[in-house]
Specification:
Length: about 240
Amino acid sequence: MKNTRSIVRAPQMALDFSFQLPTHVSINSRSPALVRAEEDDQVQAPSKRSAGAELGDMVVDDRVLSQGITTWRSLIDFAIRTGHTELYESEDGRQGLRRPGFRYAPISRLPERAPEYVKDVLTGRLASYLEQKKLHLTSARVAADDTFKAQVVLDGSTFQISIFEGRKLDSTWSFKLMDLPRTPGLKADDEEAQQAFVAKRIKRIQREGRIAGGDARLISKAVIRAVESILKNIEVSK
């Protein structure tokens, strides 16, 4: 009689060792050619999401600041914490991030909306500083044209705006530092957006009859120049 052995089969376990990788990982490297090749396809479509939210979804392999695989938001936060707070115009229309006064930049090509996020973070820091110090500063009266002048008073992080027609106070209103628009572009782009923001407020006040007249565009330029003079004095005194 032939001996037969019954073979007991162990239950099979389905083990899946696969894992999900991001669809795209950009590279922050000291090699400009490598960075350009990896970032050329990172141009983002117009979005209503905040710059910080978009950067939080963008993965980067950082080979300069030793952060490894991380998100662009985390990398930029780390760079800012370590003193890299100056945006500068890099190549191909991009901007880089470095320490003020230094030529070397650990991040030479930021993603499209990253400069906007850097400005958001730094402006938020400045607003907190102003609220904490409770600063009260007044600008000179800045001429918009032959008739109208603008004067700005900083109270905490709020700008009180006064428009004068000749020597007569014509109107007053206010806005917060964080209300001023910040763009992904250069300083000139920010100034243009901020002037448009102020001009829109002026036109609304004109419709309400609270300003006798004047060119809203010229008055807005005077307001922004006054704001910038105050902020420049704060940076010098910090």
